[in-house]
Amino acid sequence: MSSRTLPLLFINLGGEMLYILDQRLRAQNIPADKAKKVMNDIITTMFNKKFLEELFKPQELYSKKALRTVFDRLAHASIMRLNQASMDKLYDLMTMAFKYQVLLCPRPKDILLISFNHMDAIKDFVKDTPSILSQVNETYQQLIEMYTTLCSGEFQLIRQTLLIFFQDMHIRVSIFLKDKVQNSNGRFVLPTSGPVPYGTQVPGLIRMFSCTGEEVTRLQFNNGGNYTAALREGSFELFRDRVTKLGTNMYSVSRPVETHMSGTSKNSAQHTKVNTAPNPLAKEELNMLSKLMGGLEVPKSGNADNGFRVNLFNTDEEEEEALMSRPRDLSYEVINIQATKDQQVNAELAKIMGEFSESGEQSPSSSSKGDDLLAMMDGIFM
C-alpha cells in the first residue's frame, strides 16, 4: 500500500464531482450566478490550504465510509443541497468514473496525467476568480514537486492501492453501458486495441539473443488485437498537452446518466455485513479524519433563502424510489462524529462539531456510546 495515494484519490474524485455537478446545474437551469457560486465555494473549500496540508501528509487510505463523509461535507460547502439518494448517485458516478480511468491508464505513471487533466478542468472553472485560481495553482505545484520525481515502481504501488480500494465497487453506469465498456454485472471491459504505453513496442514480435547480446532469431505471432504505437508522451508540466483523454469531462456532451446496483455489488455488501468485529484501526482512522476535516473550512452560505436543491435524478419520484431500493449497506450514511465534554476527547473533534453546528446542519439524535475515541468509532462503524 502506498502512503502517497490519498492526494491523487481526492483530487481525481473531486474533479469528477465537479464535472457531474456542473452538468446537473446546467440541466436544471440554475441561474448562472448561483451555479458559479456553488462551483467557486466547493473549489475554495477543496483547495483550502490547511486542509491540503493534512491531505498531502504521507498516510494510508482510510475506509470508504470515511472518504464519503469528506465528500458529503464538500458537496454541501455552498448553497446547494443534495438529498441522500442524489448524494449516493453522485458518489457512485465519481468513484466508477475514476475506477475506469485507473483501469485504462496505459502506464501507472499516467495516473498523474489523469490528475492533471482534472486539475486543468478545475482551473478552467475558476479562471475568472484570481483568488481561487491561486489556490489551485499552488496545489498544482505541490503535485508536480511530490509526484513527477517518483519512480515507476512507486506509481505501480499507487495504482495497485487505488485498485484495491475500488475492487468491490461494481455500480452500473448508463454512459459506460451504452458505450459497451461495462458489462451488465458492473465490471469494466478492457480494450484489446489502441495505442500501447509510451516507450513500449506493439506486441507481436519475439526476439532471441545469443549470450553475447547479438540477435539471432525473430518470431512473429498474432497479438489478438489492433494495437498501434504511441505517438508521443503526455506532458507533466503546466499548461501542456496531456495526450490522454482520461480524466477529461465525459459529460460535456449532454446525455442522461443513470446508475444501477449490480447483483455482484449487492452480494458484496451482504458479505461485508457479516464481519461486525470492531475495527482495530478505528482510533487511528478517527484521528486522521478529525485532522482532515478540521482543516476543511466550509464558507458561510449567507442567506438561507438563496439555497436550492439539486436532483441527480429526472424526477423527485425517481430519487425517492432509488433511496428506498438501495441496499442499506451501500448508502454510505455520513459518519456522525460525536464530541463530548470529556477531557479525553481530541480537541479537534470538538472543533469539527462546532463547525457542523455553526453551518446549521442537524445531527441525528444519539446517545453516549463511550468517551474514548475507540469506543466512539465502534459505535459509528458497527
Give the overall form. globular
Q: How are the strands ordered across the major sheet?
A: 1-8
From the helix content, strand content and strand pairing, which structural class follows?
A: mainly alpha
Number of strands: 8
- Residue-averaged pLDDT, rounded? 77
Helix content: 40-55%
SS summary, helix count: 14
State the order of secondary-structure elements, H for helix, E for strand.
HHHHEHHHHEHEEEEEHHEHHH
Content of β-strand: 5-15%
Give the terminus-to-terminus CA distance: 25 Å
Low-confidence stretches: 267-280, 333-346, 348-382
Q: Rg to the nearest angstrom?
A: 23 Å
Biggest β-sheet: count, sense, barrel?
Answer: 2 strands, parallel
Describe the structure.
There is one protein chain. This protein is mainly alpha-helical and 382 residues long. 35% of the residues are buried. It is globular and about 75 Å long. It has a domain at 5-192. Mean pLDDT is 77; it is low at 267-280, 333-346 and 348-382. It has helices at residues 5-27, 32-46, 49-55, 64-75, 84-104, 110-125, 130-147, 152-166, 174-178, 263-274, 282-294, 316-325, 347-358, 373-381, and strands at residues 80-81, 172-173, 193-195, 205-209, 215-220, 226-228, 259-260, 308-309. The longest helix has 23 residues, at 5-27. A hairpin with a 5-residue loop joins strand 4 (205-209) and strand 5. The two termini are 25 Å apart. It has a two-stranded parallel sheet. A two-stranded antiparallel sheet has the order 2-7. A two-stranded parallel sheet has the order 3-6. The protein is 49% helix and 7% strand. The chain has 14 helices and eight strands. This is Organic solute carrier partner 1. Residues 261-277 have a biased composition (Polar residues). InterPro entries: OSCP1 (IPR019332). Residues 258-277 are annotated as: Disordered.
